Amino acid sequence: MRLIDDGEPGSFSMRLLADELNVAVMTLYGYVSNKEELYEGVTALAFGELPAQTADGGSWEEDVRRAVRELQGICSRHPKLVTIVLADTKPNPGLYLRRERILSALRRAGFTPGRALHALGVLSSYALGFAMAQGSQALHHIPETVRDERRAEFPGLSEVADDYAAHLDPAAFDYGLDLILGGLRAELGG
Prior knowledge:
Elements: H1 2-6, H2 14-21, H3 25-28, H4 35-47, H5 60-77, H6 79-87, H7 93-109, H8 113-135, H9 144-149, H10 155-159, H11 170-188
Helix pairs in contact: 4-6, 5-6, 5-7, 5-8, 7-8, 8-11
């Protein structure tokens, strides 16, 4: 997993893994049929970091919040692996388990199948997008050219430049999730 996490996107290869393990490439094929099968195993390990089930008895909002946080956490810890998973056409049990839990909680709350599916899309995209933004060094600071030289053009960003990285911290993620859940709650009339 480290080779995928630390490497450049698309740089992982069976040769790279064989070199890291100090074995012949063909030795790897005694364990997996191809790179895609290896990706499946690595993805299972990543999603295996999460609990298989949420605790029963919570509100739909608690269940959604927990599952979305879990999804965002995996995406933050393993952004390159997530990119591989999203490009794969085969279903990934770990990813679909989280999505199933979110969808089930939304349906339990009273959303129609169509509205629950839209909400699932928003929540999944939020978790993935936030994690990808956290992984982007360009989004962690305001460049000096914006902060100083172009201050008149970007007065708001210049003003918050010293605290800019805070928009990607866990409190910011929870703030956004609260906004989404509040909107969903309002749609239900509660």
